[in-house]
Amino acid sequence: MITTLKIMRQMGLDWTLFRLQYELNKKMGFLEKKFPPHHMTDYEFFEKTNLNFQTQEELHFWWKQNKAPFFFLSEDKKGIQDRMFSLLPSMENDVIKIADEICENNFLYFSNWNVKFEKINWHINPVNNIEVPKVHWVNIKDLENDFGDIKYIWELSRFPFVYTIVRAFILTNDDKYPAKYWELFENWIGENPAEIGVNYKCGQEMTFRIMAWIFGLYAFISHKETTPDRMTKMLKMIYCHADHIDRHYDFALKSVRNNHSISEAAGMYTVGLLFPFFDKASRWKEKGKKYLEEEGLRQVYSDGTYLQHSMNYQRLVVQVYTWVFQLAKKNNDQFSDELHDRLKKCALFLYNNQDDQTGKLPNYGMNDGALIHPLASNDYLDYRPQLNALWYVLTGKRLYLSGIHEENLLWLCGIDSLSAPIDCQEKETKSYPIGGYYTIREKDSFGMIRCTTFKDRPAQADMLHLDLWWKGQNVLTDAGTFSYNTDIDQFLFFNGTSSHNTLMINNKDQMDKAQRFIWLNWIKSKLLRFYKDDSVTIFEGEHSNYSPLIHRRSILHKENCWIIVDDMFGDFQSKNQNFSLRWLFGVNQVEKINQNTWGIRLEDEQLNLKIFSSQKTNDQISIGATNIIRGWKSLYYGIKEAAPQLELNLNSKQNTRIITVITTQENTINYSLENNHVQINDYTLLLFEIGDNHVFKVD
C-alpha cells in the first residue's frame, strides 16, 4: 500500500485518476464490453465505406485504379530493382536467403535470432514454448510470469518480415514471396479473431502491423495473389485495427505517455489518409495528425533529446515521423514547421552521438529491439538508414555518403532521392541541457555523459554514466536491456545502477524501484560546468540521490587522454560508507597489468586504464557472473553476452576521491596525492580539494 501511494505521488494526479478509472472499468467488465469480439461481414464493411459497392470484385478493381499515393508504385518495380542491385552488389543474396527462410517459417526475431516453426503459432512464447490463452485481451496481463516476456510473443505479429519479402520479390520477381505474404496474413486473421488474444492488447503493436500490411498490399496490389477476397479481408482488418486504436487511444495518451501515443496517432493518420473512403477516415486522419503534432512537440525536447531517455526509442520516433511526413507529402498534406524543426534537432542529436565508422550509437536507455521498417541490410545497431531517410524528408538532402544504408531511402522516398545533394553535418562537442546529455567529440574518440534532473519518467538508474568510443569500438559501454520480463536480479542489473559506468553507494541503486517500469525518488542532478577550449574539454556534474552524500563526477579530455574524477563527499554520519565504481567494457580483451593498471585490447592498439584513489581499494573483473549478476551486456533484445566488468570497492568515513585515466599505452600517467595533481607525460593537471566548487584547476 505504501509503495502504491508513492507511485501515485510520483506519477501525478492526472495519471493516478486515469489509471484508477481504467482499472475499475476493467474489473467491472465495462472495458471488455467496449471491445466486443465480432466478425465483420462484407456487407457490414461495405456499409462502413463511402462507396456504393456490393462485391469484392468492384472494390478490388476500383481501389487498384484510385488508391491514394504511397511511397512507391508497382510500376516503379524495375527502377527500384536496378537501384537495389547497384546498392547491394554483394548482399542481394543475403536478402533472398532471409526471405527464403521466411517461406520455410523460419523468422528473424529482433534483428538477431531465429525461430523455426513447424506450424506457426501467433500466441506462443518461442523462448519457453508457453502459449497464451485465446481469451479477450482485457483478461491477459502484460507481464504475466506464466508465459514470460510478452514481447517475444508480439514480435512475429508485427509482421516485420513483410519488408524482407517485398525486397526479395523486387530482386527476383519470384511469385512465392507474394504467395507467402498472403498465406501469413490469412493465417493470422484466422488465428486472431477480433479482440481475442494477446495481439490486441497494445495499440502500438497494432499500428506496426498495419504499416507492414499496407506496405505489402501496395507492393503486391498488381500481383495475381492479391485477389479481391484477400484485399477485402485486409481492408476489413485495417479498418478494425484503426477503430480499436482510436477507441483505446486514451490509454496511450494518458497512461503510457511515451512513444505509444506517437505510434498510435501515426496508425490512425495513416489509415485515414490512405483509405479516405472509410466512414471514419476523416476522424482518424484529423485525430492522428493532432496528436502527432502535440505529442511530437511534447516528447521530443527542444534540444532534440527525447523524454524516454533511450537511443533506440528515439530512433523508433524517427522512423514513425519519416513514415508520416513522407506520406503527407505524397498526399498533399503537411505538418507544422515547428514539428519539422523539432525532428531536425532530434535527428541531429542522434547523429552527433553516432560513431562515424560503424553508424552505431551508445546502447543507452531501454533497447527493446524495435526496428519497425527494416528496409536496408545494415546491422540493427547501425542508425544510418533511418537518420538518412528522415534528414532527406526534412531537408531534401542526404546525411551520409552513398552506401547500403540508402536502400531505406530508396523505398520511402523514391529513386530520385538517391541523387540528392549530400549534407554531411559536422559532429561536435555539444551540450543538450534539457535532456541532460553532454557529448565530447575529438578525432579518434567521443564520450557521452548523462547529467539531468528528470522531469519525465526515468527508465534506468544511470546518472553520470559515461559511454566511451575509440576508433569505432565501444570501449566503455552501456549494458542495454536484455528483457522486460526476466528474473528480478537480471532485470535490476540491466536497468539499475550496477550495470552502468558510474558509482554506487552502499550497493543501492540511485533510485528506488517500484514496478518494472516505474522508479521512485527521481534523480536530481546539477551541472557545474561544461566547456571546451583549444586544449581541453571539461565536464563537471553531480547528483544528490545518495543524500546526505553527493557523488560528483568530473571528466577532462585532452588529445588521446580521458581523465575521470569521482568525488564522494557530504555527511558520512560517522559511519563507513561503501563506494563501488564500475566500468563495463564493450571489448572482450581486458587484463590486469599491475596493481592499478588494466590493458584494454582493441583491434589494432591497446589502451590503458589506470585508477588512483585516496583510500585503499579492492578490485575484481567479472565476466558473465551469475551468483551475483555482473559482467553482462545485451546489444539485441533477448540476447545477453558476457562482457568484462571492472568493479573497484572501498569503504570510507571521509571525503573520498577516485581517479580513472584512460589513454594510449605509450603515455606515462602518475598521481600525486600530496600535491593533488595528475601528471600525463609533461602535462600537469591540478585538482581542487574534494567538495570545492570545481575539481579541475583549469582556467
From TrEMBL:
<protein>
    <submittedName>
        <fullName>Heparinase</fullName>
    </submittedName>
</protein>
<keyword id="KW-0574">Periplasm</keyword>
<dbReference type="GO" id="GO:0042597">
    <property type="term" value="C:periplasmic space"/>
</dbReference>
<dbReference type="Pfam" id="PF07940">
    <property type="entry name" value="Hepar_II_III_C"/>
</dbReference>
<dbReference type="InterPro" id="IPR031680">
    <property type="entry name" value="Hepar_II_III_N"/>
</dbReference>
<feature type="domain" description="Heparin-sulfate lyase N-terminal">
    <location>
        <begin position="95"/>
        <end position="352"/>
    </location>
</feature>
<keyword id="KW-0456">Lyase</keyword>
<dbReference type="InterPro" id="IPR012480">
    <property type="entry name" value="Hepar_II_III_C"/>
</dbReference>
<dbReference type="GO" id="GO:0016829">
    <property type="term" value="F:lyase activity"/>
</dbReference>
<dbReference type="InterPro" id="IPR008929">
    <property type="entry name" value="Chondroitin_lyas"/>
</dbReference>
<keyword id="KW-0732">Signal</keyword>
<feature type="domain" description="Heparinase II/III-like C-terminal">
    <location>
        <begin position="427"/>
        <end position="654"/>
    </location>
</feature>
<dbReference type="Pfam" id="PF16889">
    <property type="entry name" value="Hepar_II_III_N"/>
</dbReference>
